[in-house]
Design goal:
Distance between the termini: 106 Å
Number of domains: 1
Structural class: mainly beta
CATH class: Mainly Beta
Radius of gyration: 31 Å
Largest sheet: 5 strands, mixed
Helix content: 10-25%
CATH architecture: Sandwich
Length: 132
């Protein structure tokens, strides 16, 4: 009887040993990080009739995918006319800006950049000058 109990105990130990020594599954490959960029710059205006020029404070600045009219992001330039779009993925974009000098009813300015092509993580400066 004792031999039978030892045999069962030995058999159970081997089974548990084989089950617990199962080979670990390999970890999945981490995904490569996304290339994200920053597009930033200054927005300025120039009024040709009066010669008035300056920073377009609080101008509305829009990020467009390619030449699409509809924007994918919109921000306001700061009190120095500076804007910054962060987290921009690879692709082709344009920037547009609008500004009204002297508030409602004042002179309106607008402009759009040439195409900006992003192929890697980068900081791109795109200054916008609006002339009327």
């Amino acid at each position: 009887m004792k031999i039978k109990n030892y045999f069962i105990l030995l058999l159970a130990t081997l089974v548990i040993g084989f089950v617990s020594c199962k080979e670990k599954e390999p970890e999945p490959e981490p995904e490569p990080p996304l290339d994200v960029s920053v597009i930033q710059g200054d927005v300025t205006f120039y009024e040709t009739e009066t010669g008035l020029e300056g920073k377009a404070v609080n101008a509305t600045v829009r990020l467009h995918k390619g030449t699409a009219e509809k924007s994918i992001k919109e921000i306001q330039a700061d009190d120095k006319g500076f804007y910054k779009f962060s987290g921009v993925l690879n692709g082709t974009y344009t920037i547009s800006a609008e500004f009204t000098l002297f508030g409602a009813g004042g002179t309106q300015f607008s402009s759009r950049s040439d195409s900006i092509v992003i192929t890697k993580s980068d900081t791109i400066t795109c200054d916008i000058e609006m002339i009327k």
